[in-house]
Specification:
Rossmann fold, 369 residues, DNA Cyclobutane Dipyrimidine Photolyase, subunit A, domain 3, 49% helix
């Protein structure tokens, strides 16, 4: 293996020329200018393996339901067709000649806990996926609200790093007649939707998609009063069991259940009034499936500032969410064993009062839309 670091517009053409190698990759929709320059310099070919549909194909959608219908229609007319692996003959080269460009070994930063929850690689992705297909075939179903994680795929990190393609997931799962298949595939379409929106709104990582929310008084740069509250949220010490459980799960495992992600994000942006960018950046730093498009898209969806955002008045009550989705308390007990004991603090802010304040602030923004 040859390892090199630096500007791909310089490195890739140089190595390809020295080896006499052809260059090919799955398209990267956030680095199209860079990849176009590499392609021009090398004569490379690229393929649409990272998404189900190309973001420049057809009209851009701002609402998920019509987008989903369009994707289903497109895939019905031209379903993904897995291709056989290419026959690649290894080059007989002396990698020592590239040693001056070799990257230093990366430090092993992951804790033992994180490592036990994350198994990277294509083999791990395929094993996880086919195990889940067997789960569906046995009638297990797909439930994105199951906090145990037994009824979700866990494929998001593998999709993030290209270790399994959404086309392969679609082809294999859509051929299976079992409950839960469509619910699972709907999540794959949602991922495509995030990337389509990012392609057309590339500054969504730092700016509100709905400009009216520029007037919303979130705590952000220049104001340090909120940083202590932000730190409590990051550490899972908010006094709200479900939120704290999710944040501690994130730190220990590099992931967090989707339902809890929404609750934790709602608590930060709506109850605490802290800017969604703080949450987006923390998730980017800690999630193993942190995705260039999905991360900011989903944060703006919860915050209310995105295209297909949750209604501004939708503020997740974390106490009711816990009663509904963790009625036995097993999820909270696993990550916050001190919950409901004298050692556990009261919520940082009153749930009802903070919701009322958030609604008043959102209504002011809403009235200007």
């Amino acid at each position: 293996m040859i390892r090199a670091t630096g500007d791909p517009r310089e490195i890739v053409p140089r190595i390809a020329a020295e080896l006499g190698a052809e260059v090919t990759w799955n398209r990267r929709y956030h680095l199209t200018d860079v990849d176009a320059q590499v392609k021009e310099a090398t004569g490379a070919t690229s393929h649409p393996g990272f998404l189900l549909t190309e973001p420049w194909a057809g009209k851009p959608y701002k609402v998920f339901t019509p987008f989903s219908k369009a994707v289903q229609a497109a895939l019905s007319d031209a379903p993904p067709q897995p291709l056989p692996a290419p026959d690649i003959t290894p080059l007989d080269i002396d990698t020592a000649e590239f040693s001056d460009r070799a990257a230093e070994p990366e430090p092993f930063w992951a804790s033992d806990t994180l490592a036990t929850h994350c198994t990277p690689g294509e083999d791990a992705a395929l094993e996880r996926f086919h195990n889940f297909l067997e789960h569906l075939a046995d009638g297990g179903g797909y439930d994105n609200d199951d906090l145990s994680g037994h009824s979700t795929t866990g494929l998001s990190p593998h999709l993030r790093f290209g270790e399994i393609s959404p086309g392969y997931i679609w082809a294999e799962a859509s051929a299976l007649d079992a409950p839960g298949v469509w619910a699972m595939l709907r999540q794959v379409i949602w991922r495509d939707f995030a990337w389509h929106r990012y392609f057309h709104v590339p500054d969504m990582t730092t700016r509100n998609v709905r400009e009216q929310f520029d007037r919303f008084e979130w705590s952000w740069a220049g104001d340090t009063d909120h940083l202590a509250d932000l730190a409590l949220w990051q550490r899972g010490e908010t006094g709200v069991p479900l939120v704290d459980a999710g944040m501690r799960e994130l730190w220990a495992t590099g992931t967090m259940h989707n339902r809890v992600r929404m609750v934790a994000a709602s608590w930060l942006t709506k109850n605490l009034g802290i800017h969604w960018r703080h949450g987006e950046e923390w998730f980017w730093d800690t999630l193993v499936d942190a995705d260039v498009a999905s991360n900011p898209f989903n944060w703006q969806w919860v915050a209310g500032s995105g295209d297909d955002a949750a209604p501004y008045f939708r503020i997740f009550n974390p106490l009711l969410q816990q009663e509904k989705f963790d009625p036995g308390g097993s999820y909270v007990q696993r990550w916050v064993p001190e919950a409901f004991t004298p050692l556990y603090p009261e919520p940082m802010v009153d749930v009802k009062e903070s919701r009322k304040r958030a609604l008043e602030s959102y209504q002011e923004v809403r009235s200007s839309m």
